[in-house]
From TrEMBL:
GO CC field: plasma membrane
InterPro entries: LipA_acyltrans
Domain of life: Bacteria
Protein name: Lipid A biosynthesis lauroyl acyltransferase
Entry annotated with the keyword Cell inner membrane: yes
Compartmental location: Cell inner membrane
GO BP field: glycolipid biosynthetic process
Annotated signal peptide: none
Length: 315
């Protein structure tokens, strides 16, 4: 390709990027000014279309609900539809997060333990260089991250995320999260960022990890009562570097009304365990707590993934 053709190709790619970015910004601004009831109806409509058309995800959802929660066909369909609706709402709520964080627009019940409040204060003051925060794709996970980011500021809050391959979408998501204090890092990069913060080469960090998805090279421990492959990254970081950890969720009671629960992950009784045993025990504790949250409102968790597929080969 000659220089002129290369320049034309580069200019075309830049124009495509700018046009796509403009379209995403236009949609974002439009959604942010709509009344909550309109957003609710919009989310319900989109979720109904996805439920009808995405047969593969619908089948996985129904299979998971029947086998894990032992629901009847009728109950599985009802919970499955609500789960699709909840997942669409999360996207809308993340775009409109400024409303949730402004007191005049939100109604949030807080349940933050005394121990968690002390740890949050130490994180905010910089007394602790690195704190882990654990949650799951349940309720409004964006909100629990944004709320923690607001209360630990100026401590930087980073989130391990699998970013979309589309650069325009990935950049847009990063920009939206940055507006409310969350800094997205690709999962491959977050460990390096965490270790640099732990060593003191970076300012204090709060690192948020969502720990409820399939991990092919993980540990096989129970989740919602059935063994599945779970990431061991949080357990390794916590145990190897003696890091404190928060664990919590933000659950939607209705659009515009929420419940946040934050506690400290219990880490006692690990002193006599080998490292591999400690990793498994910490992961089991994480899964047990996250499972208890999900059972309280199963329609607010993502059931459309093959969470319990065979993979890591452990008994």
């Amino acid at each position: 390709m000659d220089n002129e053709s290369l320049m034309l190709s580069t200019s075309f790619e830049k124009a495509k990027y700018s046009l796509a970015a403009f379209a995403l910004n236009f949609v974002t601004v439009s959604l942010r000014i709509l009344p909550l009831k309109v957003l609710d109806h919009f989310s319900y409509g989109i979720s109904a279309v996805l439920w009808s058309t995405n047969k593969r995800r619908r089948a996985i959802t129904l299979k998971n609900l029947r086998s894990i929660l032992a629901l009847s066909d009728e109950s599985s369909i009802r919970v499955g539809k609500r789960s699709f609706y909840s997942n669409i709402l999360v996207i809308i709520e993340s775009i409109c997060m400024h409303r949730l964080l402004r007191r005049s627009y939100k109604s949030t019940r807080m349940d933050v333990s005394d121990e968690a409040q002390r740890l949050i204060h130490k994180c905010q003051s910089g007394e602790i260089p690195l704190t882990i925060a654990i949650s799951s794709h349940y309720g409004v996970w964006e909100y629990v991250g944004a709320w923690l980011a607001s209360v630990v500021s100026p401590t930087k809050t980073i989130v391990a995320s699998k970013l979309p391959k589309n650069r325009v979408v990935a950049d847009h998501l990063k920009n939206i999260r940055t507006e409310y204090g969350l800094h997205l890092f690709d999962k491959k990069e977050v460990t390096r960022e965490v270790l640099n913060a732990h060593k003191g080469s970076l300012p204090p960090h709060l690192c948020m990890l969502l720990c409820d998805q399939h991990e092919g090279n993980g540990l096989k421990v129970p989740f919602l009562g059935k063994k599945c492959c779970t990431t061991n990254v949080p357990a390794r970081l916590i145990h190897k570097y003696k890091l404190p950890a928060l664990i919590g969720i933000a659950r939607r009671e209705k659009l515009g009304s929420y419940y946040i629960s934050i506690d400290v992950l219990p880490l006692s009784g690990l002193e006599l365990l080998y490292d591999s045993e400690a990793y498994k025990e910490i992961t089991l504790r994480i899964n047990t707590i996250l499972s208890s949250y999900i059972r309280e409102a199963p329609s607010q968790w993502i059931w459309m993934h093959r969470r319990w597929r065979e993979c890591c080969g452990e008994d």
